[in-house]
Amino acid sequence: MADETPRITAACPDCGARLTIDQKTGAVLWHESKPAPKENRSIKEMMADLAQKQKDAQERVERENEVLKDQSRILDERVKEALKRVDKNAPPPTRPIDLD
Question: In terms of domains, do 53 and 74 share one?
């Protein structure tokens, strides 16, 4: 393939995964995860980790719900403010269907 775009292979500093990146667009073309290390842990330790992950996930969901509620409130305030500034005497805008 002579017209193949140049690619970059890099290692993720966070998770250690290998990434193949298109140099022209910066898009990730391939993601190869780092193999998980073999661990010798007890069932109790694994269950405790799982419970902690579930708790963290629930907290993230609650935070996102709060953000969404706040975004809705902000959007409502913007609409109310825009409606205050509408000129009641201005003619309505021309609709594209009226141009036929």
Answer: yes
Residue 99 lies in a domain: no
Same domain, 45 and 76: yes
pLDDT over 80 (residue 78): yes
DSSP string, 31-51: EEPPPPPP----HHHHHHHHH
Query: Which token pair is 69?
Result: 């509620």
Tokens for 94?
A: 């021309």
Q: Confirm if 2 and 8 have CB atoms less than 8 A apart.
A: no
Three-state secondary structure call for residue 79: helix
Q: Which amino acid is at 81?
A: E
- Report if pTM > 0.70: no
Reported confidence tier of residue 74, pLDDT bands at 50, 70, 90? confident
pLDDT score, position 3: 57
To the nearest 10°, report the CA torsion of 13, 15, 16, 19.
-80
